[in-house]
Amino acid sequence: MKVKIVDLSLRDAHQSLMATRLRLRDIVPILETFDQSGIYCFEVWGGATFDSCIRYLNENPWERLREIRKRLKNSLISMLLRGQNLVGYRHYPDDVVEKFVKKTAEYGMDVFRIFDALNDVRNLVTSIKTAKKCDAHVQGTICYTISPVHTIERYVEIANELAVLEVDSICIKDMAGLLSPKMAYTLVRELKKEVGLPIDVHSHYTSGMASMSLLKAVEAGAKMIDTVISPLSLGTSHPPTETMVYALEELGYKTGVKLDVLLEVREYFMKVREKYQGYIDWRSTIPDTNVLVYQIPGGMFSNLIAQLKEYNALDKLQDVLKEVPRVREDLGYVPLVTPTSQIVGVQAVLNVITGERYKVVTKETRDLVKGMYGRTPAPIREEIRKKILGDEKPIDCRPADLLEPEFEKRRQELIERGFENPSDEDVLIYALFPQVGLKFLKGETKEEPMPIFGKVEGKFEVEVDGEKVVVDVKPL
Ligand code: CO
Questions:
Q1: What is the 3-state secondary structure of the chain?
Q2: In CATH, which superfamily holds the domain spanning 296-400?
C-alpha cells in the first residue's frame, strides 16, 4: 500500500517553531536536493509566510514562491489558505479572493489546502471554486478540535459538505496536537467509509501523540501524512519525516521516499536550526501535556506568554490557561486556530487582567459574537452575547456577502499614492495588508535582525542588509 508524504519543513515547521522567520536565502540552497528525495508534496507557502515576508523579512512573498517553485521540479507544492481570510486575518471580498487564488495558481501552486477556522463551509466556497477552476488539487480541510459539539457525525457532515464542492481530498487539520491515536483511527475510518475521498492527516506534535496518531491514521486508510525534516520536528511542529518513513516502510507501506537523500537534507537543516536558535523557545520543543487539558496550540501558547509579558503579568499564566477554555465555551466552541485562537487568547488575557470577564472586549471578539467570522460550531452563550452586543442583532448570512468588491479600488489607491501601473501581485500585497503592505511596497521595510541565542544580555550591534542595527538582547 502506498502512503504519500507531505513535507511541511518550508512552511508549517518554521511557523510553529521559529515564528515563521525562515528566510528564502536559507531555503534555496537545499531545494534541489530536497526535490530528489521522493517527497510527494512540499508545503511551501501560505499560512503566516506571506505576512511574515512583508512584515519582518523584507521579502516579496511572490518572489519567494517563484524561486521555490522553480527549484522543486519533481514534487508537488502546496499552500495553506485560510478560506475567505486568504493569508490574512479578516474576510476579504470575493473579487480579492478570486484574484489571489488565480494569481497563486499561475505561479504554479499545485495543491491548495483550504480551511476555515470555524469549519463554516460557506467561507470556503469562493476559494475552493476558484482553485478548482484553475485545475489545482483542492484539499478541503476540517479543523479538528475537541468539544461537546465536535462529534464524529459532525466531522462527517463537514466532509460531505466539502465533497459537494468537489474537493479532491480531505485534510484533517489537528492544529493543537489533540488528535489521539484512537480518534485518528476512528475518524479516518468513518470519513473513508462515509465520504470516500483520499485523506491527509496533519497533526502537530504538541502533546507528543502525533507519530502514533499518524500511524493509526494510516492503518485506518489515510493516503497522505504530514511530516517535517527531523531538525525541525517535534515540539509544536510535526513528526519527523525520516522516522515515519522508516516505520511505515518496515510495516510494508510504500512511501517512495529516499532516506539517504533526506540525510543530506537533514545535515543542511541542522545548520539552519542552529542559526535560528534565537527564535526557538525551548518550551516549544518538548511535549506539552497542558494541551490535553487546555487545548492550546503551540503558537497560541507563545502568544499568551508574550502578551502577559507586555502587561508584566507572567504570574497570571495559570489563570489565563484556565480562562481560555471558558472563553472558548462562551464563544461557541470555536477551534483554536488562526484567527479564532488569537481572539480567544487575547480575550482570555483581558478577562484575567481586568479582573472582570468581558469588561473590555476587543473588536475581534465583538465581530465574532456578531457573526462576522461565520457560524460558530455552537451558539454563542446568550448572556455573553447580550453583554457584548446589547440590542444589536448578529448577522446570519455568509460574512463576505456584506463586502463590496475591493481589488480595483485598491489598485486605484496605489496609483494615487504614486505607484505607476501597479502589478496584480503588488495590489494583492496592499489589499491584504494595507499598512504593512504599503510600507513594504514603498521599500521602507527593513529585515529584522536575527535574535542572538544564549545567556548574553545587553545591546549589540549587528549588520542587516549592510546596515548597522542595535539589538537589545534579553535573557531567555
Ligand atoms: Co499546522
A1: CECEEEECHHHHHHHHHCCCCCCHHHCHHHHHHHCCCCCCEEEEEECCHHHHHHHHHCCCHHHHHHHHHHHCCCCEEEEEECHHHCCCCCCCCHHHHHHHHHHHHHCCCCEEEECCCCCCHHHCHHHHHHHHHCCCEEEEEEECCCCCCCCHHHHHHHHHHHHHCCCCEEEEEECCCCCCHHHHHHHHHHHHHHCCCCEEEEECCCCCCHHHHHHHHHHCCCCEEEEECHHHCCCCCCCEHHHHHHHHHHCCCECCCCHHHHHHHHHHHHHHHHHCHHHCCHHHHCCCCHHHHHCCCHHHHHHHHHHHHHCCCHHHHHHHHHHHHHHHHHCCCCCCCCCHHHHHHHHHHHHHHHCCCCCCCCHHHHHHHHCCCCCCCCCCCHHHHHHHHCCCCCCCCCHHHHCCCCHHHHHHHHHHCCCCCCCHHHHHHHHHCHHHHHHHHCCCCCCCCCCCCCCCCEEEEEEECCEEEEEEECCC
A2: Conserved carboxylase domain (1.10.472.90)
